[in-house]
């Protein structure tokens, strides 16, 4: 894809075809949230107060993990203002929904709404974008990570999905904290530490064994579910000079019942076109996108998207390709030669990161050679 358009450009062409109610908040989404909240409280009480067999506790932990993730999806929707519009009510409901994932509403809106959505897949500005080869050359940690053989690294990368949302949230707190006004910093810290204090307090109240099933294991499960979506949202797409959702975003497909339970979180391209629209109407937006720009739209079944992530590296080469520096394998990205049905690569000169001094030179030579 050589021509880019902003999300506003697409939205202006789709909006006239959508009903007016699609641009109104949908408070009825809170019924689903109430069901998940009730289920969460009930399962935690059951694990904490009843002497259940570990098998039953394990099953309840799975239900809790699914509920934690679903509440996070609803919290994402609430904090975009698509459920209620009053700021104080939006933040209270968003804080409750994100409580199991221990992410505060002020931090989330700064990190996700204000920064990620405005600068999607911009290497320098998007806090969720993966690095380019040039950034890899400047980071001692990344260079060490990419010395690990690709199959081993892919295994640990997928295993880390079970903790990645939590770790990234902590990183975002540190990264954005200085950007908040002094009067808001105490609120941001309170919104971050208050959920953690309740969960750690629960640990001392019920003991580690029950706490493991009531919170820790569900948190790991929720992390994995949430990050399975987030990892497929953009990480097979190229870095882009223009925030073009049809170039930098991927919609995954899941069974309809999962879409219902996950508040249509799979419709990610649609979300980046209309972030202030309830996800209830994203199937309608999808119909218009596929009718108007079928050659630009990226859509994959969730399983195939995750398999493609497993088989490709996460370092960008010249913005629109992915590179495995250790072996010199270069893969396409979506819209730039990547075929999820048949993932192949072309060979470049391998880049053995043997020392800090030689690496930028090797990269410079490789990029120069490719440009000729």
Description:
With 372 residues, the chain is mainly alpha-helical. It has 2 domains: 7-132 and 145-304, no CATH class; 313-371, no CATH class. It is 59% helix and 5% strand. The two termini are 21 Å apart. Mean pLDDT is 92; it is low at 353-372.
How is the secondary structure organized here?
Layout: H1 7-14, H2 29-49, H3 54-79, H4 87-98, H5 105-116, H6 133-138, H7 140-145, H8 150-159, H9 161-176, H10 182-206, H11 208-234, H12 245-248, E1 251-253, H13 256-261, H14 268-273, H15 282-292, E2 299-301, H16 302-311, E3 316-317, E4 321-324, E5 329-332, E6 346-347, H17 359-371
Parallel strand pairs: 1-2
Antiparallel strand pairs: 3-4, 4-5, 5-6
Helix pairs in contact: 2-3, 2-11, 3-4, 3-11, 5-9, 9-11, 10-11, 11-16
Q: N-to-C terminal Cα separation, in Å?
A: 21 Å
Strands of the widest sheet, in order across it, are 3-4-5-6
Residue stretches low in confidence (pLDDT < 50, at least 5 long) are: 353-372
Largest sheet, in brief, is: 4 strands, antiparallel
Alpha-beta classification: mainly alpha
Characterize the overall form.
globular
Residue-averaged pLDDT, rounded? 92
How many domains? 2
GO biological process, one term: lipid biosynthetic process
Transmembrane segments: 30-50, 56-76, 154-176, 188-206, 212-230
Domain Fatty acid desaturase: 56-298
Pfam families: FA_desaturase (PF00487)
């Amino acid at each position: 894809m050589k021509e880019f358009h902003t999300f506003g450009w697409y939205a202006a062409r789709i909006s006239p075809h959508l009903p007016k109610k699609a641009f109104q908040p949908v408070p009825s989404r809170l019924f689903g949230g109430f069901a998940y909240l009730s289920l969460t409280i009930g399962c935690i009480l059951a694990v904490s107060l009843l002497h259940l067999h570990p098998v039953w506790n394990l099953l309840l932990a799975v239900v809790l993990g699914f509920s934690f993730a679903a509440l996070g999806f609803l919290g994402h929707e609430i904090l975009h203002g698509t459920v209620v519009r009053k700021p104080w009510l939006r933040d209270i409901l968003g804080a409750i929904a994100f409580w199991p994932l221990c992410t505060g509403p002020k931090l989330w809106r700064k990190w996700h709404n204000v920064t990620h959505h405005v600068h999607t897949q911009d290497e320098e500005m998007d806090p969720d974008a993966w690095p380019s080869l040039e950034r890899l050359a400047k980071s001692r940690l990344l260079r060490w990570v990419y010395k690990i053989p690709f199959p081993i690294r892919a295994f640990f990368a997928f295993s880390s999905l079970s903790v990645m949302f939590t770790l990234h949230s902590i990183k975002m707190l540190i990264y954005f904290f200085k950007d908040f006004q002094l009067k808001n910093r105490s609120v941001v810290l309170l919104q971050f530490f208050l959920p953690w204090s309740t969960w750690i307090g629960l640990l001392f109240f019920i003991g580690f064994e029950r706490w493991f099933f009531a919170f820790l294991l569900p948190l790991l499960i929720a992390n994995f579910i949430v990050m399975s979506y987030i990892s497929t949202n953009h990480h097979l797409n190229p870095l882009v000079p223009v925030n073009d959702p049809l170039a930098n975003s991927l919609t995954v497909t899941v069974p309809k019942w999962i879409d219902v339970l996950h508040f249509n979180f799979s419709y990610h391209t649609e979300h980046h076109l209309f972030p202030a629209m309830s996800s209830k109407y994203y199937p309608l937006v999808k119909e218009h996108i596929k009718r108007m720009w079928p050659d630009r739209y990226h859509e994959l079944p969730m399983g195939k998207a995750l398999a493609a992530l497993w088989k490709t590296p996460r370092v960008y080469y010249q913005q629109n390709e992915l590179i495995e520096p250790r072996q010199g394998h270069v893969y396409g990205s979506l819209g730039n030669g990547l075929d999820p049905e048949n993932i192949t690569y072309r060979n470049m000169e391998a880049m053995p990161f043997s020392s800090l001094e030689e690496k930028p030179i090797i990269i410079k030579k490789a990029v120069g050679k490719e440009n000729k």
